[in-house]
Amino acid sequence: MNKSSDAQRMEKIVSLCKRRGFIFQSSEIYGGLNGAWDYGPLGVELKRNLKNYWWRVMVHERDDIVGLDGAILTPPAVLKASGHVEGFSDPMVDCRSCKARLRADQVVEKKGVKQCPVCGGKDFTEPRAFNLMFKTRVGPVDPRWSGGAIFPMSPEGATGATGPVSPHVDVSRTRASTAGATVLSESHSVLAEDETAMAYLRPETAQSIFVQFKNVLDVSRKKLPFGIAQIGKAFRNEINPRNFTFRSREFEQMELEYFCRAEEGMKWLDYWLEERLKFYENIGIPRTKLHAHEIPDQERAFYSKGTYDIEFDFPFGRQELEGVAYRTDYDLQQHQKASGKPLEYFDEETKQRFIPHVVEPSAGVDRTVLALICEAYDEDTAPDEKGKLETRIVLRFHPRMAPVKCAVFPLLKNKEPLVAKAKEIVDLLRPHMNVFYDESGAIGRRYRRQDEIGTPFAVTVDFETLGEKDAALCDTVTLRDRDSMKQERVKISELIQLLFSRIA
Ligand code: ATP
Questions:
Q1: How buried is residue 106: exposed, middle or buried, by Cβ count under 10 Å (0-12/13-18/19+)?
Q2: Positions of E strands within 399-456
Q3: Which residue's CA is the closest to the ligand 1 atom numbered 19?
Q4: Contact 177, 186 (CB under 8 A)
Q5: Which of 43, 286, 320, 348 has the fewest CB neighbours in a 10 Å radius?
Q6: Are strands 290-294 and 306-314 parallel, antiparallel or unpaired?
Q7: 208 three-class SS
Q8: Is 232 in the pocket of ligand 1 (CB under 6 A)?
């Protein structure tokens, strides 16, 4: 596909996401909050299917991995030890012409000259480090800071409006921030930086795993190698949220910290890279669209001995879905040093104590959901009610990921026995999968509505189901396949098993 058709495809995807209730702009009726998204009725199902499948293969189907659900509020000490307070920043520049605030490494060059993507200007400020963490306060807030007028709004804001600025606020620092939360907290920090009352919204889920390493080890009594998995929200005050949900300020991660002996680190890195590639294939993302990009020595974090980015061909380009990094023993060493608490592993065979090394596959839920939608989106042709070919929009989700697994239709809504039978089938399937009952409109329209949200199977109850035409067909239904649009006649008594075998 060429660039303009990729852009059109992306536009269609964004519009479908809103129209059918996958993803909405957060706080939309107030103008929206940049970098935050709400998942609608179908989006939340898709997201859950992804997270549940990750949890199933990473935790439930293995003996060597246990789970954790850590707090989002994180004390500064943790993120100082991990290096985030000092170093979790992106280089930022301002365009002097239109004042757009940009990530320096994302300003593209045209004919060797850097150009502002907003106005085309070529005059930028010097790059400066911008820490991506959101700070907040815990406990009662000083009354001097509780009045609305005291807080400056984000210079960028949802609508671009700039709010009142307090006389207490150091404007130069305020201007160096991009989102309300940071602006707000930076302004507090001018008055008093009381660390005991301060916390960060975690920028990754990983740190609570390292901090709880000893507790989890003691209660689970695992032997190396073993892992701790977590799914949860993370927050980064990205300079330029963009590409729909791809770069958000609030997002979810699915992270595993797999602890091992130092001499086995590289082996487990290779193992996890392959496992993770397989995972994406198993949710419907073909290997041909996935790329394992090995990060060169000079670009890797200094403590890492090997890192891969798993990238996907999005319509807006090849971009990272997941990082798989061999982080050595850096994190546990840092937390042991900073907390003064031993975080060692005791090897009962050799009677040695040591800090284990760790390999971390760290995936983004939102980026994977977006990849699933981009990969699934398709247009083909199908006959309408009168047999005329029309364009059909279809999301070809892997049945495992599809928000609705099976739709159930009575052929006609005003024939009570058909409706009653269809509702019986809904009751039969509902304990096992997410089903959708629809009796309104022509059957072809109903199929189209399900195709557009990616429902892989549709069951129709017709007069043959009632045994009116042929007694042999009594208690059979038509099962229609979304992709081939073929219909087969199946017994109701065999429906659950058949669907299970196709959904997996
Ligand atoms: P990028 O280079 O794209 O900023 P990163 O290398 O900083 O990403 P990691 O710190 O490795 O990302 O985080 C692990 C995963 O978390 C990423 O692969 C991605 O899927 C997800 N992730 C990170 N930042 C964001 C974000 N701003 N919005 C959505 N997902 C994110």
A1: middle
A2: 406-410, 435-437
A3: 364
A4: yes
A5: 348
A6: antiparallel
A7: helix
A8: no
Q: Are 325 and 362 in contact (CB under 8 A)?
A: yes
Q: Is 238 in the pocket of ligand 1 (CB under 6 A)?
A: yes
Task: Name which of 175, 180, 136 is nearest 26 in CA terms.
Answer: 180
Give the closest residue (by CA) to ligand 1 atom 12.
323
For residues 122 and 97, what is the distance between their CA atoms, to the nearest angstrom?
8
Instruction: Please work out whether the CB of residue 247 comes within 6 Å of at least one atom of ligand 1.
Output: yes
Does the Cβ of 276 fall within 6 Å of ligand 1?
no
Q: Omega of the bond prior to 399 within 30 degrees of 0, cis? A: no
Block residue for tokens 């195709």: 451
How far apart are alpha carbons 82 and 334 in whole angstroms? 6
CA distance 400 to 405: 8
Give the burial class of 160: count Cβ atoms within 10 A of its Cβ; 0-12 exposed, 13-18 middle, 19 or more buried.
exposed
- Cβ of 116 less than 6 Å from ligand 1: no
The pLDDT averaged over each successive group of 10 residues in the chain (504 residues) is: 81 97 97 97 98 98 98 97 93 90 86 88 90 92 51 36 30 29 39 73 98 97 97 96 96 98 98 98 98 96 96 97 98 98 95 97 98 97 85 97 98 96 98 97 94 98 92 94 96 97 92
Two structure tokens written together for 357: 């090394």
Tell me the HSE value of 218 on the side-chain side, using a 13 A CA sphere: 7
DSSP-assigned states of every residue in 320-384: EEEEEEEEETHHHHHHHHHH----PEEETTTTEEEPPEEEEEEEEHHHHHHHHHHHHEEEEEEE-
> From the alpha carbon of 368, which atom of ligand 1 is closest?
20
Strand partners, 235: 250
d(CA 354, CA 294) in angstroms, rounded, equals 29
- Kindly state the DSSP code that residue 247 receives in the 8-state scheme: B
pTM of model > 0.90 = no
